[in-house]
Specification:
It contains 1 helix and no strands. It is mainly α. It has a domain of about 45 residues.
Length: about 70
Amino acid sequence: MLALPDHNVVDVPSNRLSRWSHVQQMIQHLWKCWSHDYLHQLQQRTKWKEVQPNVTIGELVLVKEGSNY
């Protein structure tokens, strides 16, 4: 936690990098893809993406009170 962050080498051509820097480039690329694709996918709310009809008179419903959520 006290270490300085590595330099951003994602945009540097790989033929200009040392072996260590190339490994760092691959790690940074993986982190960038993971954080943009996977984390954003987790934050999507699918609850209201599908249109659901409103409750009408005569339908059976369940009412729950005192939820801990």
